[in-house]
Amino acid sequence: MTVPLGRRERKKAATRQKIADTALRLFLEHGYEAVGIRDVAAEADVAVTTLFSHFASKEALVFERDDDFEQRLTRAVTDRAPGEPLVPALRREVRSMVRHCTADGAAPIWHMIDGSPALREYEESMRLRHAESLATAIGADPGVSRGTTADRAIARFVIDAYALARAASEPDAALDEIFRMIEAAWAVTRPSGGATGEAGL
Questions:
Q1: pLDDT tens digits, one per residue of 70-121
Q2: CA–CA distance, 118 with 63 (Å, rounded to integer)
Q3: Which end of the chain has fewer CB within 10 Å, C or N?
Q4: CA torsion, ordered 3, 8, 13, 18, to nearest 10 deg
């Protein structure tokens, strides 16, 4: 059950969103490299220190849903229904994330990211962090964990599935194809005894 945000939390969330929306608009209008942190703060009518209290870097302004995506991935593991297999739960969540990132209007943002070495590097570090968090969540579930190496490998595959499908001309079809391979890879890691607590993949 989600606990409603208090007034202070709502105000903080609104300020964060205002900063992120302002930054993205400026970046798309003028180019990512041409806009500085001070420009964003001035346009959003906040102090630079306020901006940095919400975002650790200029790159983070572009990936403002970073933490939300990471939490959604881990919750796909920890909050799935009792007995629900792991891989279908992850596929469902990744599909939702891909659809969000390929919605109308998203193409200019990804074009900007692809054209910036700093943003590409930040995205790669973000993906690695997401994969580690996902692997930790899988490893903490004794019903599905296959061991550290397998857990980390499957987490990397899932994160790469998101990136590959997001860039594909037919994201849903690409995701289905990739997750068939992920299911096969996960299946071969099943311990020989078969007692993993998974009703399926």
A1: 999 999 999 999 889 999 999 999 999 999 888 878 889 999 999 999 999 9
A2: 12
A3: N
A4: 150
Rounded Cα gap, residues 99 and 20, in angstroms: 20
The residues, any chain, with a CB within 8 Å of residue 127's CB and separated by 6 or more, are: 159, 160, 163
Which helix or strand (DSSP H or E) is residue 19 part of?
helix 7-30
Task: Give the Cα separation of 135 and 116 in Å (integer).
Answer: 29
171 closest CA partner among 161, 184, 181, 158:
161
**DSSP letter string, 44-97:** HT--HHHHHHH-SSHHHHHTTTHHHHHHHHHHHHHTSPTT--HHHHHHHHHHHH
